[in-house]
């Protein structure tokens, strides 16, 4: 089985990716959080993609947009940086993205999706994969979308089997994923709600043909999850602490203001507190915390 860390905007930048690679080296492929397909890459994105910041990491940049020419412009820049694959995001459910007909919003018109993929796949010097949801409002939309995806030699198709309207609620639509498995002949990756070894076992028992899995929140809650799936003992406090400390150091080197460091780490702790008893208590403390000094004391308390 291949394991991928899901892209998570604001969280899985290079600092976090490196901490996984150093302390939980079980991830086969990483994806950047989505990068807007625009004319020029920002300095922040260039830093996230830089080879020296991703040394032990197999990284695939993810682009979000709705125009083939803009995707291609970005893809050529990625080629210059030495990348060989790119991932296109047709899954982001956020209102601000969808209202611009990007992310899952682009799934509204399968014909347009087909035209875009035709041009990108014809002209892209890089292998192209897609990360998609299964529709906007109705699981029956999948038939038309699937009819588009089957036409293209994608490197792989990553499916998070929820609708845009589902956001992250309810359970993934396993029946739709099962249909996709029958219909799609490029490598298919399952993504969604794998937060424990049991969840992993259920998904792989339901879909024995799957050979790649992407995990997001489950790996943030328990960074040792893939290690456990592979038969290793759960991550101990010392390892979690080292993982955390590397992220803290990386943030201190990168962000100018201490409050930005604390803000970034608060997002991570929203998930990571699930690895600890008394989650609610610590989450409250972390959320309220205002300064780096206060933050360090709370972290000390959590790990002691
Ligand atoms: C805070 C957050 C940020 C996300 N950012 C991205 C992103 O940049 N690109 C993307 O394709 N998906 C993004 N996702 C979706 C995840 O990659 C993943 O598909 C989703 O969380 C379901 O997988 P999981 O149940 O394993 O977490 C994001 C999800 C969350 C919760």
TrEMBL record:
Annotated positions binding FMN: 62, 131, 160, 216-217
Gene3D superfamilies: Aldolase class I
Annotated EC: 1.3.1.-
Active site (UniProt): 92 (proton donor)
Obligatory cofactor(s): FMN
Matching Pfam families: Dus
Keyword terms of this UniProt record: Flavoprotein, FMN, NADP, Nucleotide-binding, Oxidoreductase, tRNA processing
InterPro entries for this protein: Aldolase_TIM (IPR013785), DUS-like_FMN-bd (IPR035587), DUS_fam (IPR001269), tRNA_hU_synthase_CS (IPR018517)
Transmembrane regions listed in the UniProt entry: none
One GO MF term: tRNA dihydrouridine synthase activity
Location of the DUS-like FMN-binding domain: 5-243
Family the entry assigns: Belongs to the dus family.
Record function comment: Catalyzes the synthesis of 5,6-dihydrouridine (D), a modified base found in the D-loop of most tRNAs, via the reduction of the C5-C6 double bond in target uridines.
PANTHER family (UniProt xref): TRNA-DIHYDROURIDINE(47) SYNTHASE [NAD(P)(+)]-LIKE (PTHR45846:SF1)
Name of the protein: tRNA-dihydrouridine synthase
Organism: Roseburia faecis
């Amino acid at each position: 089985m291949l394991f991928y860390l899901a892209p998570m905007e604001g969280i899985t930048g290079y600092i976090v990716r490196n901490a996984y690679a150093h302390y939980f080296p079980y991830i086969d492929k990483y994806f950047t959080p989505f990068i807007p397909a625009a004319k020029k890459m920002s300095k922040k994105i260039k830093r996230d993609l830089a080879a020296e910041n991703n040394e032990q990491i197999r990284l695939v940049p993810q682009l979000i947009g709705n125009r083939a020419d803009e995707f291609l412009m970005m893809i050529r820049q990625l080629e210059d940086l030495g990348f060989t694959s790119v991932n296109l995001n047709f899954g982001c459910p956020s209102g601000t993205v969808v209202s611009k007909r990007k992310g899952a919003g682009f799934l509204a018109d399968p014909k347009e999706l087909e035209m875009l993929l035709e041009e990108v796949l014809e002209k892209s010097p890089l292998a192209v994969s897609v990360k998609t949801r299964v529709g906007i409002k109705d699981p029956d939309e999948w038939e038309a979308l699937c009819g588009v995806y089957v036409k293209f030699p994608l490197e792989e198709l990553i499916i998070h089997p929820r609708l845009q309207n589902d956001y992250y609620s309810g359970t993934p639509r396993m029946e739709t994923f099962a249909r996709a498995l029958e219909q799609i002949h490029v490598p298919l990756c399952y993504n969604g709600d794998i937060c424990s070894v049991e969840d992993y076992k259920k998904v792989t028992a339901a879909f024995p043909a799957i050979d790649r899995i992407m995990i997001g929140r489950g790996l943030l809650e328990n960074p040792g999850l893939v290690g456990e799936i592979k038969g290793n003992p759960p991550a101990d406090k010392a390892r979690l602490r080292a993982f955390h400390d590397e992220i803290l150091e990386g943030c201190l080197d990168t962000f100018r203001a201490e409050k930005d460091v604390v803000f970034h780490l608060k997002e991570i702790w929203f998930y990571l507190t699930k690895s600890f008893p008394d989650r609610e208590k610590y989450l409250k403390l972390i959320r309220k915390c205002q300064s780096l000094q206060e933050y360090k004391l709370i972290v000390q308390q959590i790990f002691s």
